[in-house]
Design brief:
This protein has 499 residues and is α+β, with helices and mostly antiparallel strands. It is built from 7 helices and 40 strands. Among the domains are: 92 residues, no CATH class; 213 residues, no CATH class.
Length: 499
Amino acid sequence: MKQTLTWMAKGLVLLMLFISVVVTYALLSSPPDGESNDISHAGESLGGIYKRYNGSVYAAVPSNGLYKIEQADPETFALIKDEMRNNRQVGKDKDHVYCGNLVLPELDAARTVYLGNSYFSDGAHTWYCGFSTIRNENLSAIADVYQLVRYRLGYGTKPQSYLYPSRQLPQSSTPYRPLLDADFITDGTQVYYRGEHLAQAKPDTLRRIKVPSSSGDRPSEHYFADGEHVYYKTQLLPHRDNDKLEVLKFGDIPGRTPYLYDPLEGMVFSANLPFDAANKPYAPLTRGGEHIYHVLFTSKNGIFFYDTQNRKVKRAGENIFASADFSALSPYIFWDGKRLIYLQASEERRKGKSGWSLVSRSTNILQLTEPVADDWQKLGDTRSGVFGSVWRNGTSLWYFATSSFGSRLTKSGPLYHIADNATAEALQQPDISSDDIEALFKQEKLYPPSHQKLLEAKTKYKNSGLIMVVFIIMAFSLAPAILGIFHALRVRRSIPGKS
């Protein structure tokens, strides 16, 4: 029995090695048709994403490459006309209408026209076909790899990993018309966003909620309201509309979760997830997007943040700002007349056999432990404030960094000593560049101060060891495919004239 188990274990290891070699070879090999470059360069443009080549029609689907449209008639195929030139992804021939490389059923090709906002109709049937591709939710990662391996080895069709999203709208006795600037449509009573119904939405008062920024307000892509109801995409939120609602934008924070903030009620939503109403009113600690990995919200009951990995709102700790009157000297630095507190991002990485892996990311609230005078005097801005500002405290000089200039400064934070007057003057020169500031760090003309940690908001990332589990699952999933390929090769060689 022991010997049998040993041989089974060895066989499993050999099978995994064999599958990994085959998969690697397949993924690194060229597509079997070998026409991609020829089509891209020599194919005749039919408008938008479509090309004609060697008597066939091809669609260039972003993130996926070229697809041959088998049903398409190359002689009658054309992009559907659009006076605003906002259509590139929908074409038609004498028989069909196509969203990317896929047929939109039921549409009468001869009567189909572009309505606007990525909607198309033949007068009886109406479809949404999105302007940008999305990941195919109906194709699992394992199925995607399995199909791609078969395709690269010449034993299957190209997987539809990405596609243009499409949805059919209900038939309406009143013609549909586009609403707002993009993605919306209405028949005067019902409202649809990207082809999905917005329950109870009022078309006459619907608006995109504003996203304030230094360059002016812009409309949100995900949050909408109609004077009464509030929506995240197509989801009706448990919150009543008011004209003070705003969407908070925080640069390139990992996860890029959008936040809806109501300053009147002090309520926050992360995507469609409401923060606990028992802790409101909430207020964003900063509106800056640098030097932090988490958006922190102060509350009467603590400081809270959204964990993108667990998809939960968590409490980081006590609200240390509640006991004193703090003012913001910069988006990341706060002063109450005695204490200087600032935000700083940090991360932990672990080295394993396959290299470094991310373990956790933190946003820390730190307190300066060096003695300082009671007054802070701003001397000037660095690159009009885009890079930060220069300050004096007693006899010492300080640099408050607004931009992070890459991962090094993101980890170091926004607060630095300035070594001398010449460096302070250099930081205030109108033509100073990020490279110039990096050079000052290398020369130790700028260096971080001593501090202590008061609070930490931390997100832990999944163990890289899970990759092996995924590989084992994939190996077992691909095993039938490999056996099928070899069976096909055996059959092919058994046919006279084949080799």
